[in-house]
């Protein structure tokens, strides 16, 4: 089994809603049967003893209630996802696919249902699994509590700030994971993808977005065959059928090399969060863009999203990215070279479209300026040129849109809340 196949199966489990509930169902059957066996060996207290008819009625009610509640949870989830994707972005669905609380809620409900079925099947004229009936009642109470927590979380996660915070946490975690990968001595980042005369060009056998790569497998392969591997496309790029995905330089290898290397590159229909921090940044920008559309006209949501975009860009801007593009020493080539996005690319992704679509909103341009001025003061010196360029473009945009407006002076100011915060004029801006 190739690494790509294992990755695909892991993604199906992470994003599927069936795996954990199935485990819950199996656990319910096993526990129900075990409790019934133990019940026959114990003397239960008088208060926990039931007649066969009462026990059957209670368990039948529990089975029906858990089945109905399971359907209600699915309905709530569908409605929440529909509202979230309509309000924020269709790519938000990936957060719901992976929500552990949703899967745990479904697993507990389905597990209670199968547990009650297993106990119900043990009831006879001369035997009642009293402990099992009582346990079923306790599980129903647990189901209700978990459902309340799940419903509360669904409501809270519909807030724009909560969605942006979730996506920003994912972006920060993925970026730190990428940094750990780049800190390895046998892996290096690069900004240029093409070199002359590779020994082997591995091409994609299908079109798709690069979802992830197997860094350990690629390093082992390169060291084993005495080669240097170059990945000309960063994770997240869409590659067409026949397009190069791995370039091999030097070394000795057989005819199966292309298939082996291709099995370490996972392609899919869309991007994922696993090794692609810019995908989370893309999602935040999409939320802000939709909020700034004329049909929605909600600039405050865009301002809240800018809070988290600024935080993510600040984390990246305080990182020495150039260090990860250098070899460990003279004459010591890296085993794997991965093409990555530049700091300028991340700044452009995070701010350009919001500046374009939010140019007519005074609070958006004020919050943008506050973000850029904060980044200018906190990022590494080599990253300031990109921020200064964004400030220049923001000045040009503001002057183009607000030149004849009485609020030109306000549009040229900086405000962490857009409007209502501690506003600061920007001397020399907009002149």
UniProtKB/TrEMBL annotation:
Keywords: Membrane, Transmembrane, Transmembrane helix. The chain crosses the membrane at residues 12-38, 58-81, 101-120, 132-151. This is DUF2254 domain-containing protein. InterPro entries: DUF2254_membrane (IPR018723). Pfam families: DUF2254. It comes from the Bacteria. It comes from Agromyces neolithicus.
